[in-house]
Specification:
- With 222 residues, the chain is α/β, with parallel strands linked by helices.
- The chain contains 4 helices and 11 strands; from the N terminus they run βαβββββααββββαβ.
- The strands form 2 sheets. The chain has an 8-stranded mixed beta sheet, with helices on both faces. It has a 3-stranded mixed beta sheet with strand order 4-3-5, with no helix packed on it.
- Helix 3 packs across helix 4.
């Protein structure tokens, strides 16, 4: 039996407001709250994970740097990149954290296969790579058994800001994108394939939801 998954296509959103919304969603959700997947683009921003080291931010210039509560080091978000935030109850989905990461990576690998792009994992370096260049980064957080934050999947963007950081903490790490690998430039085309493969990995049944950040009532402590 498939589990429902609300899919929200949110367009371009500022980072901090979205971070606050997914944190509140996670804090306020209950055992019957339907899992959600948010798909969006962010305004240009560097984000530094909990264990992130500021020395990996080399020359941010006019792009803001935000310290966040996800795993991982520093990464870049900007227009032309799919950011996907899976808000999943891991117990209900029957997965642990390691399997969550593995399934998200596999969904991206299988998405790229739609355009005959061969992608792979690199042991000890979460994300997805093509010929040694990173095409998608992962940075997750699990709170009360539920995931938030997520993945950044480069499609058709300005890659220059990656030269201003050590991507994911790796000096000189090559970064690539779907368009340069022979895939489409339209984010919607890649999103469609990603949702399909994500649902296949986790056994979800996608349900389109309103393209707005959800508001949940605050839970009352008892």
């Amino acid at each position: 039996m498939s589990l429902p998954l609300k899919v929200r296509r949110l367009g371009r959103q500022p980072y901090e407001a979205t971070w606050e919304a997914m944190s509140q969603f996670t804090n306020n959700r209950g055992p019957d709250t339907t899992d959600e997947l948010w798909l969006l683009e962010h305004d240009p921003v560097f984000t530094l994970g909990q264990a992130g080291k500021t020395e990996h931010v080399l020359a941010p210039g006019d792009i803001p740097v935000i310290h966040v509560d996800r795993g991982g080091q520093v990464t870049y978000h900007g227009p032309g990149q799919i950011v996907a935030y899976p808000m999943i109850d891991l117990r209900r989905a029957g997965v642990g954290v390691r399997e969550l990461v593995h399934k998200i990576e596999q969904a991206i690998i299988d998405t790229l296969a739609h355009w005959n792009i061969g992608a792979e994992r690199v042991e000890g370096a979460p994300g997805v790579y093509v010929a040694g260049a990173k095409v998608a980064a992962l940075g997750l957080r699990v709170r009360r058994g539920c995931s938030f934050h997520g993945l950044a999947f480069n499609v058709d963007m300005d890659l220059e800001p990656y030269h201003r950081i050590n991507p994911c903490g790796y000096k000189g790490l090559a970064v690539t994108q779907v368009l340069d690998l022979g895939g489409p430039s339209r984010l919607a085309d890649v999103e469609d394939a990603l949702v399909e493969e994500f649902c296949r990995q986790f056994g979800f049944d996608a349900e389109p939801a309103a393209p707005i950040l959800p508001e949940l009532p605050a839970r009352v402590a008892v």
